[in-house]
Amino acid sequence: MSLTTPGTLTPVLTDRWDKDAPYTLSSYRDNGGYQAWDKALSMSPEDVVAQIKDSGLRGRGGAGFPTGLKWSFLPPPDGGPRYLVVNADESEPGTCKDIPLMMADPHVLIEGVAITSYAIGCTHAFIYLRGEVVHVYRRLLAAVREAKEAGLLGEGLGPRGDYNLEVTVHAGAGAYICGEETALLDSLEGLRGQPRLKPPFPAVAGLYARPTVVNNVESIASVPGIINHGNDWFKAMGTEKSAGHGIFSVSGHVKNPGQFEAPFGITMRELIEMCGGMRDGHRLKFWTPGGSSTPIFTEEHLDVPLDYEAVGAAGSMLGTRALQVFDETTSVVRVVRGWTEFYQHESCGKCTPCREGTFWMRQIMLRLEAGKGQPGDVELLDEIAGNILGRSFCALGDASASPIQSGIKYFREEFEAGLTTPARELFPYEKTAVFSEAGLR
Fold it and tell me: In what residue span(s) does the NADH-ubiquinone oxidoreductase 51kDa subunit iron-sulphur binding domain sit (predicted)?
């Protein structure tokens, strides 16, 4: 089948995952690794930026901002340092694409870091990793060490030997807020991870107040393929405005959850079919197109093309392509309560709408789940969410409000039922569980 067909899988980043020891330098090079790095060093930095800009590669971390355009925002060189920071602080509930990518094939990220650093004139790049994933931290450290020992990083790079590049892997302390790029930069500087006021944007004053590019793992890992195969190859996949391939992470009540690398524009119906369908005897109730921070979708959205424009037009966001699937045994109130507790716990407390709003939304959600809601709770919950949305210092506040507002929009009767009936009676835990105690014996 043609790569332009949305339903076709396009293994690019995931193509080496089943190779023998794919995380090693020798395996990576045996499968074409670092050819793009050699090619990029034969180009001018400006040409590398222009190629990525023309490719249509959009940020894979959630917002979908054009990657090459972001690089081009850096001011002209002034003799001082500039930095690349890779956001590997994957923390969104349901999101699970960057961790397995770094675990299975860390060198594709290292090669992308090298090419990007060269393109933007950076000599010291950082990979900011969520600290709990120690196994991934060790794997990245080993990959950087291998690349440096092989002369792929370090000093004297390029045909003239005049380019130097240091790569530092930094393990964060495990805070969801540090997925926000400016909070990440503060944390990397040794400060408390809290979002900064913008402007100035990181491109002008980022790490150590110097020009900085902050990109997601998958965004940077996609760069070597574009340099190697060209823009026509990349644009042949996906849609006109959402070009290329991406990793779609399907979890929940499907027979075979997993990672599916496919062109943008594939539909949820196609992905569920690739998973073997819903678990036997059950039907789809609701799902998330981009993780817990995105407004939920229902059966009516199964044929929405999964690209930035179509998902946005349908009322949600593609986000990190964390496709969480829930069947009819699931309490929407219970799921949204769990997400709300997460956001309340992870709020940095810097701004009032998020700090106070998530606390009160959590209290109401707990009441509704327990069947102890008070008259007017659903209206109050919707009002609080509306007062947070668009008024918080960073996107964490919006993330906490979106599932509540969309949950009430599509399943208001379940929220209203929380005034009198506990969710555990309407939706028993044992019916929702994917694994039973008997099945684990």
Answer: 333-378
Enumerate the H helices of 2-160 as residue ranges: 25-30, 35-41, 45-55, 67-72, 98-104, 106-120, 134-149
Q: HEC string of 383-414?
A: HHHHHHCCCCCCHHHHHHHHHHHHHHHHHHHH
332-426: what fold? de novo design (two linked rop proteins) (1.20.1440)
Task: Give the pTM.
Answer: 0.94
90, 172 contact by CB (below 8 A): no
Q: Which two tokens stand for residue 156?
A: 């004297």
| Residues sharing a CB contact under 8 Å with residue 50, sequence separation 6 or more, in sequence order | 68
How is residue 34 annotated by DSSP? T
The DSSP call for residue 75 is P
The first and second tokens of residue 269, run together, are: 């119906």
- pLDDT above 70 as % of the chain: 97
> Cβ(248)–Cβ(271) under 8 Å?
yes
d(CA 44, CA 47): 5
CA triple 15-213-231, angle to 5 deg: 45
Rounded Cα distance between 363 and 385, Å, is 13
How many residues does the structure list for the chain? 441
User: Hey, where are the domains in the chain?
Assistant: 25-235, 245-327, 332-426
CB atoms closer than 10 angstroms to residue 351: 19
Average pLDDT over residues 425-440: 78
Dihedral of the alpha carbons of 251, 252, 255, 258, in degrees to the nearest 10: 10
Q: How confident is the model at residue 1 (pLDDT cuts 50, 70, 90)?
A: very low
**Type of residue found at 125:** A
CATH code for 245-327? 3.10.20.600
CATH number 3.90.1150.10 is the correct assignment for the domain at 25-235: no
Comparing CA positions, the residue from 330, 324, 271 lying closest to residue 294 is 324
Q: What's the DSSP call for residue 63?
A: S
Number of H helices, E strands in the chain: 20, 10
Print burial letters for 376-404: b (CB count within 10 Å at least 16), e (below 16): ebbeebbebbeebbeebbbbbbbbbbbbb
